[in-house]
Amino acid sequence: MTDHRIIQMPDNLANQIAAGEVVERPVSVVKELVENALDAGATQINIWLENAGIELIEVQDNGRGILAEDLPLAVERHATSKVKSYQDLSCVASLGFRGEALASIASVSQFGISSYHQSESHAWLLQNNHDGSWNALTPVAAPIGTRIKVASLFYNTPARRKFLKTPRAEFTQIEDYLKRSLLVNPGVGVSLVHNGKQVFDFAPASERELYLVRLAALLGEAFVEQSLHIRQSLPGVSLEGWVSLPTYHRGLADKQFVFVNGRIVRDRQLLQAVKLAYADVLYHGRHPVFVLFINVPFDQVDVNVHPAKYEVRFQHARQVFDHVRRAIRDAVMQPLVSGHEGATRPASEHASNELSDQSLLPSTHLRQAPLVLAADHANSTQDLAGAFAFQQPDQSSYAIGIQSNSPSVIQESSEQQSLAPKLGFAKAQIKGVFILAENAAGLVLVDMHAAHERIVYEDLKEQWRKQQIVSQPLLVPLVLHLSSAAIMHWEANVAWWQGWGFEFEQLGPEQLRVMAVPAVLQGLNLMELLEKVFADWLTEQRPETMLEEEFAAILSRRACHGSVRANRQLTLAEMNQLLRDMERTPASSQCNHGRPTWVQLSVEQLDQLFMRGR
Fold first, then answer.
1. What pTM, to 2 d.p., does this model score?
2. Are 191 and 201 contacting, i.e. CB atoms less than 8 angstroms apart?
3. Where are the beta strands (DSSP E) in 55-196?
4. Could you tell me if 307 and 270 are in contact, meaning their C-beta atoms sit under 8 angstroms apart?
5. Rounded CA gap, 366 and 259, in Å?
6. pLDDT for 563-594, tens place per residue?
7. Which residue, 132, 464, 476, 602, could crosslink 12 as a Cys pair with Cβ 3.0–4.6 Å?
8. Listing from the earlier edge strand, what are the strands of the sheet with 442-447?
């Protein structure tokens, strides 16, 4: 008969079970040690790896260090300097606070820690033995700070070691984590050596221009050149970061970074907010690139909902969601000619050279950063014939569509050209599809239909906003079969539904009769739409965004059908009017389907095409 008595586990077994929660793979160790270094105030972190950390992980920092008398306690379970009371758990201001980290790491490795606190005369070393015991403290020579050596990871738990991925895959995870850490900690230098080879060596980069160089090294120069810097604050939430122009995108969502209070997170709701911000300006199936820093009061975010703290829970999630979505939407929808002060500009154009006190990024003024990391450039709009690179005049690249026939050409005086607007003046219509214009930078090519489609679409949206939502009674009412929870939701939100133009009548405990719907939704599968909206409510999604998307899709189709078509002859006056309309229209750099509407060719690029000056 099996003995089901409860017993106290030996310490070494309990430590190894705890290690399974904290130390899943080498990247888990690197993350814990790097975050400890950051919490200790380090401005330089050096990392050495062998065999992707499986054989060796060594992390050295120049932080505060640990007192000799505290070293033995640092490797005990439930020992930490970051949590003093229960209240601290509801207001976590540090990156890490679990007491199991070093104890768990030490229980599955050959572990050594040396530390030099500035109040003492030298450093001290503490090492473990194969049986889990600890040697006595030994004085050693070392600089101020802490150095931790983790060798032979999982040597005593071979079952766990065999589930590790290939060294290349394990190293990629470590490198990805460190890149994220570099993005959110500009005042910290980080060096990584793998198998004796330098992978990268970033010095601190607290000044804005130096941080942009770091950003270019990690995400590609093209991103810095084709991104917008945003910074907005509301009571309870602040947002700063860099978001790509709609004309710069990738096939994979692998260059999207979100940080909350300096912590790396992977939050599906926040990613959804960004996705909605790019609705109807990003090409289908493509993904934006962005780096976002969100700050909320520490007591309004729970960081302990995930073992590795990659997920967070906001006390006011709707406020954060709306702020992120609105801030990015406002940035990517700006017209070419912005009439308000403080308009968002491309990241590369920002004149401020220091990360100001209002910045959400840590700011430390240190030496310039030599960058030794080769970053791959994200996929962007392809060059045309190798020379038609989509350059962004000030804020973005446009390619708009109208039609044209014979290349009727006019000349402007030098005074007129010096006062030329963003898209310049029309010169000709080509093949009934493109407008050829000249501006101060050089040549502008415009796709007439795509450009006019965006103009009509934005005008329709503005008209719709002013007219509000018109409710249309149904000749044959629909009957919805819903759960009792959905009926309770409807009863509590009747005014919300009426605001969107819906009218319901309750038929029974789980039935609603649909009496009227927004007129703009006529012709859609209303049953499917309403069932989805109710489902979103019950799963705490955002049903209003789905209704907005439906309205936007309908208006987009109307705009497409109502836009100027190919092979229509336009006069120069009509072409110039289109250019002026583009300049005042939000998001006119792409059509409603996300395709670019115009492209800029500089004089230098034209010279290169004809090999002038060679």
1. 0.70
2. yes
3. 56-61, 110-116, 123-127, 138-140, 145-151, 189-194
4. no
5. 23
6. 777 678 889 999 999 999 999 999 888 888 78
7. 132
8. 425-430, 434-439, 442-447, 598-602
